[in-house]
Each structure stands twice: as structure tokens, then as C-alpha cells.
């Protein structure tokens, strides 16, 4: 789902190293869209997240920042929310 300036990415329920290729392809496509200014990572369905996924999110943030685009994490819950809080992601991402 996207508007002209916003693209929403939805990681798999198990967001880990095995998700990397699919998630990267989705975010690279979004970053290549010059109209996209905000990338929302909708974490509503994520039930498991590992350190590789944290790295994937950091790669996305770095690439987006280099292109003057914003990344926000939305709908964190359960274990994924706990892991991201422990990793202090609220200090480097806007979380809604």
C-alpha cells in the first residue's frame, strides 16, 4: 500500500536473515521511486525478530538517509517490540 510520497513495507512474521533478500528487494524498489519520501515498516505481523533483522533495518535507514528519505517503524508489538526497545531503536527511528 502506498500513496505518492509514502511506501509501506511489511516484513514477514518471522523477520530474520532468511527474510533479507525479499525485504531488501522491497525497500530498494521503494528507495528507487523518486516520489517516495517516507518508508513505513509496518511491524504488525512480526512475531519473531533477530539480530540480522536489526541489521537489515539499519541498512534501510542508512540508505534512506543518504537519499533524504525517512523511515518509520509502525505497530510494534510483543517480542519484536521488546527486542527493538532493548536495542534502543527508539533513539534512531521514529516509532508509531
Give short descriptive properties of this protein.
single chain, 96 residues, alpha/beta, 6 strands, 40% helix, globular
Describe the structure.
By secondary structure, this protein is α/β, with parallel strands linked by helices. Helix 1 packs parallel to helix 2. The strands form two sheets. Strands 1-3-5-6 form a four-stranded parallel sheet. Strands 2-4 form a two-stranded parallel sheet. The protein starts with 5 loop residues before the first strand and ends with a strand. It is globular, with a radius of gyration of 12 Å. It has three helices and six strands.
Instruction: Evaluate the radius of gyration.
Output: 12 Å
Output the helix-strand order. EEHEEHEHE
- Report the mean per-residue pLDDT as an integer: 94
Percent of residues in helices comes to: 25-40%
Biggest sheet details: 4 strands, parallel
Helix- and strand-based class?
A: alpha/beta
For the biggest β-sheet, the strand order reads 1-3-5-6
Shape: globular
Percent of residues in beta strands: 15-25%
- Count the DSSP helices: 3
- What is the terminal-to-terminal distance? 17 Å
Q: Segments where pLDDT lies below 50 for 5+ residues? A: none
Number of strands: 6
What's this model, at a glance?
With 96 residues, the protein is α/β, with parallel strands linked by helices.
Topology:
Elements lengths: L5 E4 L4 E2 L4 H13 L5 E5 L5 E2 L1 H16 L3 E5 L3 H9 L7 E2 L1
Parallel strand pairs: 1-3, 2-4, 3-5, 5-6
Helix pairs in contact: 1-2
Amino acid at each position: 500500500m502506498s500513496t505518492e510520497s509514502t511506501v509501506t513495507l511489511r516484513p514477514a512474521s518471522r523477520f530474520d536473515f532468511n527474510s533479507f533478500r525479499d525485504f531488501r528487494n522491497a525497500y530498494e524498489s521503494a528507495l528507487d521511486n523518486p516520489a517516495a519520501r517516507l518508508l513505513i515498516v509496518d511491524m504488525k505481523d512480526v512475531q519473531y525478530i533477530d539480530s540480522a533483522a536489526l541489521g537489515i533495518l539499519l541498512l534501510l535507514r542508512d540508505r534512506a538517509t543518504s537519499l533524504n528519505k525517512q523511515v518509520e517503524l509502525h505497530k510494534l508489538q510483543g517480542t519484536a517490540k521488546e527486542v527493538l526497545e532493548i536495542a534502543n531503536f527508539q533513539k534512531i527511528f521514529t516509532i508509531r
